[in-house]
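Internal ticket #5521
Category: modeling
Description: The requester needs a full-assembly model to guide mutagenesis choices. All entity lines are attached below as received. Residue total reported by intake: 928.
Assigned to: D.W.
Attached entities:
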Amino acid sequence: MARRISRKRRPSPRRSRLKRLLQRRSPNAKPRWQQWPYILGGLAGLFLIYTIALDIIIRVSFEGKRWALPAHVYARPLELYPGLKLTAEQFTHELEVLGYRYTYKPNEPGTYTRQSDRFYLITRAFQFWDGKQPSQHLEITFDHKEVESLRDASNDKSMSIARMDPPRIGGIYPAHNEDRILIKLQQAPSYLTGALISVEDRNFYNHIGLDWRAIARAVWVNLRGSGGLQGGSTLTQQLIKNFFLSNERTLWRKANEAIMAILLEWHYGKDEILEAYLNEVYLGQDKGRAIHGFGLASHFYFDKPIERLNLAEVAALVAMIRGPGYYHPYRHPDRLLQRRNLVLDLMAQQGVITVAQANSTKQSALGVIQDRKKGASSYPAFMELVRRQLKQDYREKDLTSEGLKIFTTFDPRIQTEVEASVKNLVKQLDRSRGLHNTLQTAVLVTSTTSGEVLALVGDRDARYAGFNRVLDARRPIGSLIKPAVYLTALQDAERFTALSRISDEPIVLKGRQGESWSPKNYDGESHGEVPMYQALVKSYNQATVRLGMQLGFGAIADTIEDLGVKQNIPAYPSMLLGAVEMSPLQVARMYQTLASGGFRTPIRSIREVLTVEGKPLQRYSIRVEQVRDVNSIHVINSILQEVMRSGTGRSVQKRFPSKRAFAGKTGTTDDLRDSWFAGFGSDYLGVVWLGTDDNQPTGLTGSSGALHIWGDIMSRLDSQSLLPHISEQVENLAIDVESSLVGNEDCEQRVYLSFVKGTAPKNYADCAGGGTR
Amino acid sequence: MSIKSNLIICFSVLVLAACTGVTEREKSAFDVGNGSTDDQKILPGKNTSKTVLALLQSANEAARTGKMHRAESQLERALRIEPRNPTLWHYMAKLRLHQDRHGEAAGMAAKSNALAGRDKKLRTDNWRIIAHARHQQGDIKGAQAAQEKIQSLVN
């Protein structure tokens, strides 16, 4: 504005020159009155060309794609069935995430009631990949920690399974972040168009795009300086302004608006224009997302489809058009209520409703939902993973304009637990090491069988939308690499077993630049000859390097690639101790294959993609590929279980009921800069990284840092014991630690290891009675 | 008629009538002879929950009416509930074979085998899927190895 004012005061030099030129008349020039027809004709021609150009713009825009529809992203739908591990509280939380409303007596989709451990709810209809699922009346009872029974309350029959509608976790928006749900004019309640016309454009069905009477009235009101409800713009003009023009208040913009409004009315019917208006109008802001159209606004403010809005709700939305910020239903409810009532009065005045209807409706509250859970993504880190996966198959433009429906693997319940754990423990660990809030983290939880990503945290502030450390922080993985080294050995079952002796003596090797490199054990000791399992359980560096050198870098790199990490693994000795940079996501890929018994299972964040009409477009289905034989995986996983029982992971065992067995591995890098843990039960795989962004020492080992968070998460999720795949060629034995022979419960120190049949010790230890098996 | 078309999708114990056998098909080097489990239906194990049986029934109905994407979706739902149920992986393998996704079919069948324990019938049928899949992929040696596996299980 200030810029415009200063320009007015100082006319541009160019304009002054033009003025002087016009003033200087040549002696042969025609009299000025004879020039006017040419000037006017030229101006009319220019106007015509300009109008044609505007006409083209209008028709192309209106008949082509009228709106960019962002992709809508959903979490997994909760499957309910008897026996499902879920508490009544967890289910209540799920309903809250879904935006279901508690009422005394549920009477419409999206409402529920609860009496102790018994729920009654009406689900929302939903279009899934496999077809449309109608709304259902469900009665669910919980018993302690699981679903006890599930009934169809409409016919009182028991049900085997019911699928809830999936929570919406965000959208993929175009640059200006507009979001909308398209509606047809027929879907709009009759009150809506009546209210709109009463308030915004009484003469809508009679004018040609401009309403001269309204303009005159507005001018008169402005001249008198008194405020008024009715502006001069018709609905058509408002649509044109929103659709094509800026909010600039200039004469030029107004003139354009007027011409375009007339052109629009010339080409299109009133109902088409009204329908476009219903979908275009701006009705508020949800953080970074702009709420456009009545379709989305009715969901956003009232949590129901537009068809089900009542008179009071319709009037409230129409009241907001004039200024969604000024009449904000949450910030300024009184203002909105007042204006809503004014809208009702105008509707009565125009005969859309009766005065009695208006008066009785004025008594009702605004009725906007209080707990808005849906909206702009609350899970930006997960959304980033989804966006990257989608970008492999779709253009950015399609993602932000085609209204795709993306069904993901995300589990809000698991995410909540992971976030709670990260929030508590990162702060605690940061403080304990005096890191002044610089300790950062990345956590990923997947399903061991399907590879589906269930939860993801990419920053100590779980909802941070910036640098995503799960995907982008590439750090040395330390001892997390060791299972790949030992697995490479164990694949040769005739040569190596868990009890094969390897040397843990000091070793000196040539480094990358030809310098000498002599790795040390964490405890600074050398342990002589040790059984292979012990070298991994205790994470001995010297033994691992010796074994790795024997196996060869190529073989180990092949194992890592087979496990799922496609990157160049450097062929130098320090690689054997994890001088290989990987992101937590890559680490998860590697351990996913171990967790699923040697079957490489791609990590996925998306299940299905539907078109805006709900038609199946693409499915990212489960895939498994056997990359290692089940037997060697059995053996390595038995050692990784021993890591948790008696090795570097043992400190978390106390969090779980005894005998619950997990497999995992700690990782620590030089000077304690990175603290890693990757581990799994039968249901979940978790990878945790802790470190600082500027790669400073944290004072945390894998055991004293990441393992704690992992243990806390798995305990919150009540993760279950690892159940190895069944192989007739493998036997599981208790081994006496002292003699490395087959032991039993009488042996003071024993470990439980798997052996390919025929490779286990043939004799019993003395503590187990001695003798041959 | 191709080998594949004989691997009729038969998901559920509840709708056996829908599952036809192998009466009309060309014989292949990768078929097993006597004792083939080909025409013996692989039924869900006795520990299969009612929930999963309901999903299998739904998958079966979908497959019968040619709605393979729905059948696949129901099977995946079942797998999320019982990921260690070898029969479900077996059905998935059959579905993949039906979809000409041979590599994936072999992976699923191998997964089923890894969970099948001593269920010879299931393992044999899984190896048949692997043999067919490998053959379709041009891996003749691999198909022969799978065939030998079948023979060893049948004998």
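Resolution: model delivered.
Comment from assignee: The two ends of chain A are 94 Å apart (CA to CA).
Ticket closed.
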